[in-house]
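Troubleshooting entry. The earlier prediction with pyridoxal-5'-phosphate gave an output that would not parse, so I re-checked the input for stray whitespace and re-submitted. Clean input:
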Amino acid sequence: MLSSPHTRGIRGAVTVEENTESAIVDAACRLTQAIIEQNELKQSEIACMLFTVTQDLDAAFPAAGARKAGLTQTALMCTNEIPVADSLEKCIRVLTLVSTDLKQEEIRHVYLGKAAALRPDWVDSAETEALPTTTPPFPTPSFRPTILDILPYQPGKPISELKRERDLNDVIKLASNENPLGPSPKALKAIKNVLNSLHIYPDGSCFELRQKLAQRFNVDGTQLLFGNGSDEVIKMFGLTFLESGDKVLFCEPTFSEYTYATKLMGASKHTAPLADYAFDLNALLKAIDSSTKLIFVCNPNNPTGAYLNHADVAKFLDKVPEHVLVVFDEAYYEYVTAEDFVDSLSFVREGRNVAVLRTFSKIYGLAGLRIGYGVAPKHIAELVHRVREPFNVNALAQIGALAALDDEDHVEQSRRQNQAGKEYLYRELADLNLEFIPTQANFIFFDLDQNAGLVFEKLLDKGIICRKGEVFGCPTWLRVTIGTETENRRFISALKTIL
Ligand SMILES: Cc1ncc(COP(=O)(O)O)c(C=O)c1O
């Protein structure tokens, strides 16, 4: 399912205004950053960078600029260029060797400033104009190099953007696993009633919601951790437990925020492939060592929808050593129908080093409000509470979530619609001879057995946004959110036309 990396060369060049140390270092730093950003490289994928400089630049080594850009571990070398007559003056060139999943044609060579004239065939004109052609007036302040390893989150394309881009009126989004029925009507009503109080700060402790969920889950109120989406709760676990040198374990492909929280803290991620499309608990056990701090387990897994059962998780937890915290991300829990699905809260109640994350973004239909939560034993929750920002969950989210919990009709209808949509999509995908993974969530991951990026683009042309498997390292796969009956039919009919 995953493609294997290749060694590729990335070329780049930049011109420098003057032969001074700061001008050379800044230019090399910008060039390095642009190569990393435009090719979305991780530091660990860069084998080495070989710089050459024209002989009129001798005030500094450009490698210092690459170090400034955060490449503290990478092998770097600088040498003089052959002084050919009429060649571009004050120029730094670089060849970067990388081990990457990018195809040759996806590699972006980077030519900044006057150096753009060297390879006009490799330069995107829109970008060249936008790039600074002179040294910025102030040097870049130093920053935490670890952030260069973080790729900004790539969300599904918003409906408004696709409408603008392709001049479409009727667009549907089946990309972000939102509830196609919309928000809980009870939540909407409750929110409308409090709009006049928006000048007041929210309840920083989410008191009412805390009480309600504590009662529902039979835990103490102090065991609940609320966040601006469960995304924030994931980050809070990183902020609480991780430091440089710590190891975080999980399987891939999975939800991207575990990587984000790990890299943000300068910790290192160690991943294993999935087993039967769900997390491989045995592989995770084998990878544990004395530096392991956190294990994230996405269950059901995004993007595959496959799940872990109670017996397997119980056996796994019995073998996890005491210095490791296991965080179960159950964002899709309310959609699960498998009877043997793990009761992870039972381990929290036992006081094990286990936390469970859930969200109001999925079945409750409140993704736009941003509210999620974690449940953990007191000794863990007490630590995580310390890193929470004051008022991190807004007032409307708290009121909406409280009402949504009581909106049984909405939850039931959402489950029924999801089940019907799932069965319909299973039938149609099977008719098209496409391999799909049975799901416990509100999305289906399926294999097109061809470049899914092209099919994705053609679906966009027809006003349908889904999620490219490429984002998860599976370039022949697509993930589609189970929509309303009309949306599912439109998706299948478009897919049939395209295939
Ligand atoms: C597995 C998983 N965890 C967490 C989240 C984030 O949810 P929230 O909207 O609560 O931040 C998502 C969102 O898609 C998800 O798929």
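This one parsed fine. The chain has three domains: 6-135, 159-180+409-498, 185-406.
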